[in-house]
Amino acid sequence: MARRQKKSFMPALAILPTWLTVVVVYIGAMVWTLNLSFTKSKLFPSGAYVGFDQYERLLGSSKWIKAVSNLATFGVLYVLGCLVIGFCLAAALDRKVRFENAFRTLFLYPYAMSFVVTGLVWQWLMNPVLGVQATMQGLGWESFSFDLLTSRDYAIYGVVIAGLWQGSGLVMVMMLAGMRGIDVEQWRAARVDGIPAWRVYVSIILPQLGPPLAAVATLLTMGVIKTYDLVIAITNGGPGTATEVPAKFIMDNLFQRQNLGLATAAAIMLLMSVVIIVAPFRYASYIRAKRKAGVL
């Protein structure tokens, strides 16, 4: 009996340092950040509480509103674009094309790069003096234009293009793995019925890719909320505030403007957005697991 209790105690003891790290570092840091957001802390933490003043200032800041608006635009186009492009690439490779391994590596390679490298690459490509525009005009297409980053109205779409180039490969790999797990008998039945390949992918294959689709959508959405280095590398938030995002707003107030209270309030708002997005996915996964186990 004592030996059995010892065996059951050892796994708990082994993961104790991990739990301590989670409680002290993660939960402790969140509680400390929440506490600072209710103070008038500037360069250093302050114990002078001001209630919800920092949140009122934040919601009244045009720069913060613009950052949230840019993030929403970027997020919708980035997630939907990656899902569509990634699915199309996966469907193309699922047709057993020649040099499939080479194409798969080529499409996935951008995802292995950091957002900083991706940003620098696309900053050069969209440079009207050195990039694609200059090259095409030098070949005779004088009216060709590819200078999105210099326009306040279109700069955010330039950031979206860079994000799509990097993120679509991840969707492709996960969708392709899901497609390869689908019974080939469905394809045989579709061929017998004369159903076009595109209709099979849209009406039969896609509805069966729910779990990998949900997983990759969650990953992409989490990446959207944390967007910082891609924007810094491409535009540094410009022109003006055309590509300002919440993470950059937080870092600017934390290190440049020395406004710790406002920065932590913005960080809490960003954390709440993560919880709002992740919670439904986690709840859906929990319900699905319970149903499979026969509990619900």
Written account of the structure:
- It contains 14 helices and no strands.
- The protein has a single domain, classed as MetI-like fold (Orthogonal Bundle), CATH 1.10.3720.10.
- Helix 4 packs parallel to helix 8 (155-180), helix 5 crosses helix 8 and helix 11 (210-225) packs antiparallel against helix 14.
- The model has no long low-confidence stretch (mean pLDDT 87).
- The chain is mainly α and 296 residues long.
- The protein has helices spanning 2-14, 16-36, 53-59, 62-93, 100-112, 115-125, 132-138, 155-180, 185-193, 197-205, 210-225, 229-234, 246-256, 260-292.
- This is Carbohydrate ABC transporter membrane protein 1, CUT1 family (TC 3.A.1.1.-).
- It is a multi-pass membrane protein.
- Belongs to the binding-protein-dependent transport system permease family.
- It is found in: Cell membrane.
- One of its GO terms (cellular component) is plasma membrane.
Number of helices: 14
Low confidence ranges: none
Shape from CA axes?
flat
> Approximately what portion of the residues adopt beta-strand conformation?
under 5%
How many β-strand runs?
A: 0
What composes the largest sheet? Answer: none
Q: Number of folding domains?
A: 1
CATH architecture: Orthogonal Bundle
CATH H-level superfamily title: MetI-like
Portion in helices: over 70%
CATH topology descriptor: MetI-like fold
Q: Would you list the SSEs in sequence order as H and E?
A: HHHHHHHHHHHHHH
- What does the radius of gyration come to? 24 Å
Distance between the termini: 35 Å
Helix-strand category:
mainly alpha
Q: What's the average pLDDT?
A: 87
CATH class: Mainly Alpha
